[in-house]
């Protein structure tokens, strides 16, 4: 049992799950951690890592068939935790590719669409993005203004989207638009005439990741571009819940890495003739971090077991997303205080993680949205409007 795993949570994982964790942890140690300082500083996303993640079986890993890895929800969560211990931006890539774009095709696409896109996406050879959020429609996607209008046997797409991950490097975009039949999803090749993706810069968070503004100007699409199974907001929401689930695990990865960095530093840093770790105030900080990481990880494991059993409800995902993001960002900020002034440099991870978590805390449902979801569950009264 690891020194910091006081509850022996590793004992809740199978040998196969622990083996996967060690593989992903090794990848993060060897491939991400040595490079993340430069990637973050330069606002660079290493596109070549897509195929590397595909080779590890981490893209669409919870999906079955069509060349997808077919792993369990808990295994996907473990991978998300380890990747985010490296950087939220790299975990976000796996989430956008697998939990959003690939899940949309897998859940709602035709057999032809699934066979066309999913095998290549699982390998990282085809990159996808997921366009739901708009400049004026973030937490309330029902107010989206992007439209798809029938024109003969096809469609014409117009509108804008914002904060769309991977869009400038993607080959295929899952775009949600309002139609006369309600909200529908479309698979839009990013080289379509009228499709424009512009990376949002500069950013103070998620710098080793890509988010874009999208513009659609009279993009003509055949009816075969429509996701036939997706009708209404249930389509995109089902994908958002997949991404929210991964965040429950991933946020604890960022928290754990920050705690470990602070612990290591406090054991080595001498002040007033003894290490920082020997002071009561430092020990209190470390203990409070450890308690929340252990509780948050236990919550993630329990949520994953429910997902694998087919009993997980959306409101339960909100519990995990709200709690673990909120606690993770507090942990990362507190870890920075142990590092003192050194903590504001990229030589140490906590402040980078904290900055990234500002984005993680905001996307896939803000604290306020998940609070209202839980409030409605508790009281029976919706308070969104």
From TrEMBL:
<dbReference type="GO" id="GO:0046949">
    <property type="term" value="P:fatty-acyl-CoA biosynthetic process"/>
</dbReference>
<dbReference type="InterPro" id="IPR013786">
    <property type="entry name" value="AcylCoA_DH/ox_N"/>
</dbReference>
<comment type="pathway">
    <text>Amino-acid metabolism; tryptophan metabolism.</text>
</comment>
<dbReference type="Pfam" id="PF02771">
    <property type="entry name" value="Acyl-CoA_dh_N"/>
</dbReference>
<dbReference type="InterPro" id="IPR006089">
    <property type="entry name" value="Acyl-CoA_DH_CS"/>
</dbReference>
<comment type="similarity">
    <text>Belongs to the acyl-CoA dehydrogenase family.</text>
</comment>
<keyword id="KW-0560">Oxidoreductase</keyword>
<dbReference type="InterPro" id="IPR046373">
    <property type="entry name" value="Acyl-CoA_Oxase/DH_mid-dom_sf"/>
</dbReference>
<dbReference type="GO" id="GO:0000062">
    <property type="term" value="F:fatty-acyl-CoA binding"/>
</dbReference>
<dbReference type="InterPro" id="IPR006091">
    <property type="entry name" value="Acyl-CoA_Oxase/DH_mid-dom"/>
</dbReference>
<keyword id="KW-0274">FAD</keyword>
<comment type="pathway">
    <text>Amino-acid metabolism; lysine degradation.</text>
</comment>
<keyword id="KW-0285">Flavoprotein</keyword>
<keyword id="KW-0809">Transit peptide</keyword>
<dbReference type="GO" id="GO:0033539">
    <property type="term" value="P:fatty acid beta-oxidation using acyl-CoA dehydrogenase"/>
</dbReference>
<dbReference type="Pfam" id="PF00441">
    <property type="entry name" value="Acyl-CoA_dh_1"/>
</dbReference>
<dbReference type="GO" id="GO:0050660">
    <property type="term" value="F:flavin adenine dinucleotide binding"/>
</dbReference>
<feature type="domain" description="Acyl-CoA dehydrogenase/oxidase N-terminal">
    <location>
        <begin position="16"/>
        <end position="125"/>
    </location>
</feature>
<dbReference type="InterPro" id="IPR009100">
    <property type="entry name" value="AcylCoA_DH/oxidase_NM_dom_sf"/>
</dbReference>
<dbReference type="InterPro" id="IPR009075">
    <property type="entry name" value="AcylCo_DH/oxidase_C"/>
</dbReference>
<protein>
    <recommendedName>
        <fullName>glutaryl-CoA dehydrogenase (ETF)</fullName>
        <ecNumber>1.3.8.6</ecNumber>
    </recommendedName>
</protein>
<feature type="domain" description="Acyl-CoA dehydrogenase/oxidase C-terminal">
    <location>
        <begin position="232"/>
        <end position="378"/>
    </location>
</feature>
<dbReference type="Pfam" id="PF02770">
    <property type="entry name" value="Acyl-CoA_dh_M"/>
</dbReference>
<feature type="domain" description="Acyl-CoA oxidase/dehydrogenase middle">
    <location>
        <begin position="129"/>
        <end position="218"/>
    </location>
</feature>
<dbReference type="InterPro" id="IPR036250">
    <property type="entry name" value="AcylCo_DH-like_C"/>
</dbReference>
<dbReference type="GO" id="GO:0004361">
    <property type="term" value="F:glutaryl-CoA dehydrogenase activity"/>
</dbReference>
<dbReference type="InterPro" id="IPR037069">
    <property type="entry name" value="AcylCoA_DH/ox_N_sf"/>
</dbReference>
<dbReference type="InterPro" id="IPR052033">
    <property type="entry name" value="Glutaryl-CoA_DH_mitochondrial"/>
</dbReference>
């Amino acid at each position: 049992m690891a020194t910091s795993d006081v509850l022996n949570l590793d004992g809740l994982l199978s040998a196969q799950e622990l083996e996967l964790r060690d593989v992903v942890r090794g990848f993060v140690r060897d491939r991400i951690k040595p490079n993340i300082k430069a990637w973050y500083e330069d606002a660079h996303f290493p596109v070549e890592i897509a195929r590397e993640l595909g080779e590890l079986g981490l893209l669409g890993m919870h999906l079955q068939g069509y060349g997808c890895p077919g792993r369990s929800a808990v295994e996907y969560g473990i991978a998300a935790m380890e990747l985010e211990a490296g950087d939220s931006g790299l975990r976000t890539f796996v989430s956008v590719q697998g939990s959003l774009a690939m899940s949309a095709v897998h859940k709602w696409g035709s057999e032809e669409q699934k066979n066309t896109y999913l095998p290549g996406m699982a390998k990282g050879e085809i990159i996808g993005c997921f366009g739901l959020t708009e400049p004026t429609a973030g937490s309330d996607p029902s107010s989206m203004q992007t439209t798809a209008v029938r024109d003969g046997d096809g469609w014409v797409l117009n509108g804008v989207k914002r904060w769309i991950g991977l869009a400038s490097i993607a080959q295929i975009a899952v775009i949600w638009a309002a139609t006369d039949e309600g909200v529908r999803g479309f698979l839009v090749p990013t080289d379509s005439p009228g499709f424009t993706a512009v990376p949002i810069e500069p950013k103070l968070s998620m710098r080793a990741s890509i988010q874009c503004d999208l513009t659609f100007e009279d993009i003509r699409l055949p009816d075969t571009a429509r996701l036939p199974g997706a009708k209404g907001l249930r389509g995109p929401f089902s994908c958002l819940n997949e991404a929210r689930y991964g965040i429950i695990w991933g946020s604890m990865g960022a928290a754990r890495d920050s705690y470990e960095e602070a612990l290591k530093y406090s054991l080595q840093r001498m002040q007033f003739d003894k290490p920082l770790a020997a002071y009561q105030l430092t020990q209190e900080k470390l203990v409070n971090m450890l308690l929340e990481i252990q509780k948050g990880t236990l919550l993630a494991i329990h949520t994953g077991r429910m997902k694998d059993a087919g009993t997980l409800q959306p409101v339960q995902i909100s519990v995990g997303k709200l709690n673990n993001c909120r606690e993770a960002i507090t942990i990362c900020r507190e870890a920075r205080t142990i590092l003192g002034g050194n903590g504001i440099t990229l030589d140490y991870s906590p402040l980078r993680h904290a900055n990234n978590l500002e984005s993680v805390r905001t996307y896939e449902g803000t604290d306020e949205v998940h609070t209202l979801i839980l409030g409605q569950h508790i009281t029976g009264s919706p308070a969104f409007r």
